[in-house]
Design brief:
This protein has helices at about 10-20, 65-80, 85-95, 105-145, 145-160, 175-185; strands spanning about 5, 35-40, 45-50, 50-55. By secondary structure, it is an alpha+beta fold.
């Protein structure tokens, strides 16, 4: 079974905390009503979207409901504010330069341009995607307090290390330690 909604004793409190976070952020959509513990989810991911809080099963019981609250805040900001705008912004950034002007192209340039464009899009999208997570962390720190979020992320990172999940890997989203470093350097 990939994911389920088996109730953990902390699930109701996690939902309550998620609902409490919706109001300061000005979200008018209904509060999440389900906690889903997903087997296939990386332990450093938290998703709050579409009426559910989706958490990694490998982290079930390792954190209290109170410790989940600061981790839900960046996920809420990401899911309800930053990600809905992302496709429109990406399309604008990719298509707009094409219409700037007509450039005479040689055959050699036509052969190398797709490879170069693919590389640039890959590098840009990775940076842009990580930037969304950093922005969400910064906004959550403004609402909850930087020290609270840093302490929770630190404990979360230590807990993830105990599970044996590799700390360094190649993903679009940043690792917990990268999020901590960025938050420490900010303001």
């Amino acid at each position: 079974m990939a994911s389920d909604t088996v109730q953990n004793p902390d699930d109701e409190r996690i939902l309550k905390y998620a609902g409490e976070l919706f109001h300061p952020f000005g979200i008018t959509k209904p509060d999440p009503d389900t906690v889903v513990w997903d087997d296939n989810m990386d332990p450093d991911r938290v998703i709050v979207q579409l009426g559910e809080a989706k958490l990694p099963r490998s982290m079930m019981g390792r954190l209290t409901a109170e410790e989940w609250k600061p981790l839900l805040a960046p996920a809420i900001i990401l899911g309800y504010f930053l990600l809905p705008r992302q496709p429109r912004d990406t399309i604008l950034r990719l298509v707009l330069p094409l219409g700037i002007g007509e450039v005479p192209l040689t055959v050699a340039l036509l052969k190398t341009l797709p490879s170069y464009a693919l590389l640039m899009v890959a590098l840009w999208s990775r940076r842009a995607w990580r930037g969304l997570f950093y922005t969400a962390d910064g906004q959550a720190a403004d609402k909850l307090g930087k020290e609270v979020l840093l302490a929770t992320l630190t404990k979360y990172g230590e807990t993830i290390s105990v599970t044996g999940y590799p700390r360094k890997r190649l993903h679009l989203w940043p690792t917990v330690s990268q999020r901590i470093e960025r938050l420490q350097r900010s303001r």
